[in-house]
């Protein structure tokens, strides 16, 4: 079940956005909110977009924002429902998500205290696709540090979860499709900003949470990610590797690895990431283990690595 879907677009990108809107083959109706009519405070959409645009400072990412008060899934809409594919930089954002998508067949409902959004981007090197989730996870951590430079308890759990004081508060999902020689990637982010129950949230662990809103955090995320993504497309993940490993939970973590359900778990120690984004672990006999993020899962609390 979804409410009215509207969008706001910077004047510079209006021609491309209008062309895409006219080409839509889905039955979804989009209402464009004119930029010069924003900030009037007349309705909730104006108030939401006013704060977002006041914070946003990007060339492309987030300059076209699809907004809906309630949506089944931002990821489903941007990746599957809206065809043809929305241009790069489009962000789909909702206040409340009722059928969120996760890895595999995982689903969840996101109450209003959660920030949920998805965005589109394009890449030419398929070898870098597994690393995009790492880049986005790092951007989220940098966004948290932008709000509170003293916060050190928000960290990355491999491959794509965000933890605070040992509790999951967010995650990243990347889905891609290949067309005309390029990979179109839709990336979804879910982050618990203000739901203190049943575990914890971002507002519980940062010192200046009073000004933390979904709109401001989303715009700040776009500001941080855009230059990172530009560098990533040129130089790959290597410029970000050291900082990523500083922000994750797993340095020298002792784990047990099981090849399948019937095999015996073997001890190993996590050493880092390989060049192509695999989790690098070392077995008790010194053997190297390279584990792909899409084929393995890590239970942080039990320290058990298993194939899916």
Automatic annotation (TrEMBL):
The keyword Membrane does not apply. Residues 50-236 form the BPL/LPL catalytic domain. Keywords: Ligase. PROSITE patterns: BPL_LPL_CATALYTIC (PS51733). GO terms for cellular component: cytoplasm. One of its GO terms (molecular function) is biotin--[biotin carboxyl-carrier protein] ligase activity. This is BPL/LPL catalytic domain-containing protein. It comes from Albugo candida.
